[in-house]
Design a protein that fits this description.
By secondary structure, the chain is an alpha/beta fold. The protein is built from 17 helices and 22 strands. It folds into 3 domains: 113 residues, Rossmann fold; 178 residues, 3-Layer(aba) Sandwich (Rossmann fold), CATH 3.40.50; 204 residues, D-3-phosphoglycerate dehydrogenase, domain 3 (60s Ribosomal Protein L30, Chain: A). Strands 8-7-6-9-10-11-12 form a 7-stranded parallel sheet, sandwiched between helices. It has a 6-stranded mixed sheet with strand order 14-13-15-16-17-18, covered by helices on one side. Helix 11 links the parallel strand 10 and strand 11. Helix 1 runs parallel beside helix 12, helix 5 packs across helix 7 and helix 13 packs parallel to helix 14. The longest helix is centred in the middle third of the chain and has 21 residues.
Length: 525
């Protein structure tokens, strides 16, 4: 039974779901870093919100951690590169609090437009300063949305409902999606120059950190109002303060800050700034939703291998798993086969999908191929970190899809280029779900891969089969199956021999010494 540690306060529904699915649960909330490291011993999954910091040191202390689930969207409290390097899946719940956060952003925008917090304080102080609080309408104004994903698209829709003109800067927003949202896609410079209100809805990354810095704020439309319910580091707070003081920015409404909990921030003293304590996801509905989602996602992964909303590997839904499972086995076997035959540095790998294989979700299949290919070189590689390891080593990875198959209804071919040669291996599914090798180096060979195999290349000469069989038999090794293929009579030939157990190195040396033998390798699949 897999075990999950819940390290932050989650709805009780999360515990119910874990246990109903057959996952053991340990609840230890508010642990200090050293205590968290100790608590992670023997833990398969870690569920957190934003309070627990899942650092590189914490991850290094987790001896069998397989997944970190973030009940929420942002994962800046999780060291994603460190988790990926250790092969740990990191997943979030991007949809559970999208509506809640979008509504909070719009509420902040309305409060900022009408100076509601200041007017509230003034009225409670019996001042009745009706003429002091002159607001602005949202009707007809231009709303600039930086980041038009799950939350940003909802904010855009709500803005249009308020009869605002909505423009968006988002490099990943397609023209078709922009048209569906009735949003004008623009550059960041155009958004800064045109927007009356700017709202941010992007994750905090090296690329987005201080997206609104002093230089960017200087390019804004004078009197712009800024809303941030995403992440504090998106705005240079010192630059924002200066821009408000100069009158370039009329005001800001902030739910997030560079340092949280934010208890001593210069922006707090500014009447033009509205501040809330990271309330974007703080509704009972949202907290229930994200707790349910993270428990379901983590359970699906730990029990069935299904991956949903992962930040560092391709997603594989529970519905996809039955169809993908035999393909994943085939992909791993092809990668492992090629990896165990690779003796020099890898330069490139091309994975071709033909027929039915080209119609499935191929991203996890490619990750599994790379896992099998790289594991003979480094045992710590899995499908989470294999693409990263390949990229770091400068291996050129390519995918090719052809829905029209030539000889088989479905096929995967892996072509590996090393410093010395190019080698290919192809496989198919037999009887629906049984992986089978069908081609090696362009030579037709049909064989089911088994745990222990001998791969032999030789010159096609009479007596080779008998010589190989006799040498293997004399060594006391039982042959289960013997599969042959050749390029042409008298040319290059290949034998794939399934045996009942490991073949000792002295026996391999005897086989290599036989006449006309080119290569003998023991494979473990």
């Amino acid at each position: 039974m897999p075990k999950v540690l819940i390290a932050d306060q989650l709805s009780p529904r999360a515990v119910e779901i874990f246990r109903s699915r057959g996952v053991d649960v340990v609840e230890k909330v508010g642990l200090a870093p050293d205590a968290l490291k100790h608590a992670l011993k023997g833990i398969d999954g870690l569920a957190v919100r934003s309070a627990t910091k899942v650092t590189k040191d914490v991850l290094a202390a987790a001896d069998q951690l397989r997944v970190v689930g973030r009940a929420g969207v942002g994962i800046d409290n999780v060291d994603l590169p460190a988790a990926t390097a250790r092969g740990i899946v990191v997943m979030n719940t991007p949809f559970g609090n999208s509506i809640t956060t979008a509504e909070h952003a719009v509420a902040l925008m309305m409060a900022l437009a009408r100076q509601l917090p200041s007017a509230d304080r003034s009225t409670r102080a019996s001042k009745w300063e009706k003429n002091r609080f002159m607001g602005v309408e949202l009707f007809g104004k231009t709303l600039g949305v930086i980041g038009c994903g799950n939350i940003g698209s909802i904010v855009a829709s709500l803005g249009r409902g308020l009869r605002m003109k909505v423009i968006s800067f988002d490099p990943y927003l397609s023209p078709e999606r922009a048209a569906d949202l009735h949003v004008e896609k623009v550059t960041l410079e155009a958004l800064l120059a045109r927007a009356d209100f700017i709202t941010l809805h992007v994750p905090l990354t090296d690329e987005t950190r201080h997206v609104l810095d002093a230089k960017a704020l200087a390019k804004t439309k004078k009197g712009v109002r800024i809303i941030n319910a995403a992440r504090g580091g998106l705005i240079d707070e010192a630059a924002l303060k200066a821009a408000i003081e100069s009158g370039q920015v009329a005001g800001a409404a902030l739910d997030v800050f560079a340092v949280e909990p934010a208890k001593d921030n210069p922006l707090f003293a500014m009447e033009q700034v509205i501040c809330t304590p990271h309330l974007g996801a703080s509704t009972s509905e949202a907290q229930e939703n994200v707790a349910i989602q993270v428990a379901e996602q983590m359970s699906d992964y730990l029990l069935a291998g299904a991956v949903t909303n992962a930040l560092n590997m391709p997603s594989v839904s529970a519905d996809e798993m039955p169809r993908l499972k035999p393909y994943m086995k085939l992909a791993e076997q092809l990668g492992s086969f090629a990896g165990q035959l690779t003796e020099t540095g890898l330069k490139a790998a091309t994975i071709e999908y033909e027929g039915d294989a080209a119609t499935v979700n191929t991203r996890p299949l490619t990750a599994v191929v790379l896992q099998g290919l790289l594991q003979p070189l480094m045992s710590s590689v899995n499908m989470v970190n294999a693409p990263i390891v390949a990229r770091e080593r400068g291996i050129d990875i390519r995918e090719v899809k052809r829905e029209q198959a030539e000889d088989y209804m479905t096929m995967i071919r892996l072509t590996v280029t090393t410093e010395r040669q190019t080698r290919s291996v192809a496989g198919t599914l037999f009887a629906g779900d049984k992986p089978r090798i069908i081609e090696i180096k362009g030579i037709h060979v049909e064989a089911e891969l088994t745990p222990h195999m001998l791969y032999v290349t030789n010159n096609d000469k009479p007596g080779m089969i008998g010589a190989l069989g006799k040498a293997i038999g004399d060594a006391g090794i039982n042959i289960a199956t013997f599969h042959l293929g050749r390029a042409a009579p008298g040319g290059d030939a290949i034998a794939l021999i399934s045996v009942d157990g490991p073949v000792p190195e002295p026996v391999l040396d005897q086989l290599r010494a036989l006449p006309n033998i080119v290569q003998v390798r023991a494979l473990k699949l």
